[in-house]
Each structure stands twice: as structure tokens, then as C-alpha cells.
Prior knowledge:
Elements: E1 8-16, E2 24-25, E3 29-44, E4 54-70, H1 75-81, E5 86-88, E6 95-102, E7 108-109, E8 121-123, E9 135-138, E10 143-146, E11 157-163, E12 170-172, E13 180-190, E14 196-208, E15 222-227, E16 238-241
Antiparallel strand pairs: 1-2, 1-13, 3-4, 4-15, 5-12, 6-11, 7-10, 8-11, 9-10, 13-14, 14-15, 14-16
Amino acid sequence: MAQRGKKYSGDLFARKWGSMDGFVMIGNVTELSTSKESDSDQLTSTGRGEYGEVIENESIPGPTELAIKFNTFDKHAMARVMMGEAVDLSTTPVEFTDEPLTVGMNWLKLAHRDIDETTLVLTDDTATVIPADTYDVNPRLGMVKFNDTSTLLPGASITYAGTTKGSAGYQIDANTLTSLPLEMYLDGKDRISGQDGILDLPHADLSSDSDINWFSDDWWEGGLSGPLIKDAGKPTMRFIEYK
């Protein structure tokens, strides 16, 4: 068979190594690279006529390193670049009553976020409802700001009640994981020959190497890198290509 150049594309699937979880796509992968370096221990001659020549050489193979870049994100991809786990938010609204708050300047933090501002009621220490036009609400962050302090002086004690919206979503506590052990498959295709190929990566121990500029005008790019692990009875990496 004649040799040809290669250009690959494909879908990279992953799941937690050692689990029976379903596989999910890493994202729109822009880079999937493997590299392997070797070292050597050389015995060199000190002889008069052959000084510095190698008498014996022991090649010492190093680990196979994997690097991945991707530029689309779901909750799993966000969790990977933040070295945490994505947890779905509860969609059950939370009711709160008689929560205390001290009047002050600027934005004041409430006990909950995702506030349904149509239910929010603030009450002063005489049990009188505070008019809604005397304060602003940031329902996403769960904060209020008083714009009329003529009757409510800073330091006054009030209470508030209401409910949250119960909006769907997820949260990630960053840097709670020290590594990401993954099992991965590349469902690939050689764009030159049209042949299908599979890259089997049974065990990779990765960590995030992403720098995220949250205000960047460019598309975000996530990155993972780390060594491939040799498990008993399995290759470090296996490539299959079909005719």
C-alpha cells in the first residue's frame, strides 16, 4: 500500500477512569497530541585514541504525555478546566421568612441568590412593609440597595421574606480535584484517505492547564495535559485504522 500524508479529525469521548459511567464528548477538540521522550545512560571511553566514544548505551524510555485543547463547553468541560465537579442546582424554589438585615450603604447581600423579586417583601422594625420603590434589587446575586435613607437610617434592623425562582443550572467548586483520571476514545477519520480510525487511551491522568480570560473577545480554549498510565493487561495507547 502506498504511503500517504495524514490529516485527522474526529470526536473525542471520555469518562472517569475505572467507572461504568457513560462517555461524553470532551468538546470541539482543536488539539490532541501525544509525545514521548527517551533518555540514555552512556558509558564513554577514556581511551587515548577513542576518548568520548560510546562503549555501551542504555535507552531509558520516558512516559507518554498527552495534551488536549478544546473550544466548546458544557458543564462537564467547565468542570474539567476548573478542576472541580459540576453539580446540578435544585429547581425547587426556597421560601425564606423573617431573615434579618441591617440597613447600610451600597449593595447588601441577602441569604439567597436567584431571588423571585415579585415575592420579596422588606419589613421595618415596626412590622411596616418598606415601599419597593425605595430600594433596588439584583435578583441574580441576591442583593438590595436602598436609594432612600431619609426614613431608614444606616444601622437600622429590618427583616425580609420571599422565595427563590428555583432556576435550573449547575455549580462548580473549583480546584477540589488534584487530577482528572480519564478513559478516552477518539472516533477519528483520516481526511486524506477517508479511512476510519480509533485511538484508544485506556488511562490518562490529566490536569487543567487552561488560562481563562473571562472577558476575552476571543473564543475560550480549555486545555488538559498529563501522562498516559500503563495498566496491567492493557496498552498505554492503541491505534486502529480500518480500510
